[in-house]
Amino acid sequence: MEINVLNIKGQETGRKVTLNESIFGIEPNDHVIYLDVKQFLANQRQGTAKTKERSEHRGSTRKLIRQKGSGGARRGDINSPLLKGGGRVFGPQPRDYGFKLNKKVKALARKSALAYKAQEDAILVVEDFDFEAPKTKDFINITKNLKVEDKKVLLVLPKVEKNVYLSARNLQKAEVMTASAINTYKVLNADVLVIAEGSLQAIDEVLTK
Length: 209
Hints:
Oligomer: single chain
Number of domains: 2
Number of strands: 6
Helix content: 25-40%
CATH architecture of the largest domain: 3-Layer(aba) Sandwich
Shape: elongated
Order of helices and strands: EEHHHEHEHEHEH
Strand order of the largest sheet: 2-1-3-6-4-5
Distance between the termini: 21 Å
Number of helices: 7
Radius of gyration: 27 Å
CATH topology of the largest domain: Ribosomal Protein L4, Chain: A
């Protein structure tokens, strides 16, 4: 699959690049996409929810009513889960929601996400660029030149460009990441994938090694 290379003014440079068919041309696998997105979202959870059990409440340990003969349920002290203000039974405890996925599964999920973007013609390739200083206005001008200012944009760079990252940080519909850090959720969450030309080789190295 060939795609035109644009400059940051939105103009064609006259050059084309060929997208790797083993990445952008595969048949997407929906199940591995589901697993990878599920893992990504699970890893975002803090897992700090906590309720007190009866042993963690402060209160008298005196048995309130006799064991038998009252006609009601058995209960012990005032911290009993049966009473208002008592402990909670099987309440949430701090935990890690993360789970393991094989590297090949995660790689296939990323390939599938990129393949979906290729099928939707939602990929733009631009020349490598950097800013002399952080300036949000410059980044907005690029999105306008590429005619994607009203869409959620994911810009993929070959390496960390701090000024580009800082320029996009305050924009709600724009995100910047390196090719080595690309993940399934971010790709699918974007309306348009803008890939710097040098990132294509980095993506190939990450997903085909």
